[in-house]
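HUMAN:
Just now I want nothing more than another pair of eyes on a protein record. I would be glad if you read both lines and explained how they fit together. I have put the entry right below:
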Amino acid sequence: MSPGKPSRRIEPQRVYQLCLELLFIQPIIWRTILVPETMTLPKLDRVIQAAMGWYNSHLHAWRIDGRRYGVPDPEWNMPGELLDERKFTVGSVLGDHIDEFVYDYDFGDSWEHRVAVEKRLAADPERNAWPMCIAGANACPPEDVGGPPGYLDFVQAMHDPTHQDHLQMWRWNGGPFDPSAFSLNDANRAIRKLR
């Protein structure tokens, strides 16, 4: 690119409709998002974080078609074990044939998300060529709550004022918690802040 010339953005031809489900929790915590094929995997990570309600304070990885993607670390990963996610776009890894994959977040708490490719849509710059959340249900668990078992204990303690850990959990969370809460507007506000 020559100095002074603006970079040319590649316009997406296709948009993926993805449904994310947080596994091992009932009722299901889910979001449906639209993302352009030109989005990189690190940017998809940020969109998922925003839509779900996570704070992106832990590592993540992708399991797609028998391959693992993430941010390679020579101290932790064997060479070739983890493909560098920064080199891949949503379209390059999902193409026409991938219908489902896994997004892992926080290797300590082990939040596993099943991601289904619901639709492959034509991109329309007036309607859907940017990331957005179009549906969802139930609140995202708090960060560092202890994975699915810790979250279930947390919800039980928060909703039973006689529970021995109620006050401690209330203070730790900074107030009440409604596991059925979800705001589409809040999810999209968080996604818009990423631009």
About this structure: Residues 14-139+180-192 form a domain with the Structural Genomics Hypothetical 15.5 Kd Protein In mrcA-pckA Intergenic Region; Chain A fold (CATH 3.10.290.30). The chain has a mean pLDDT of 92.
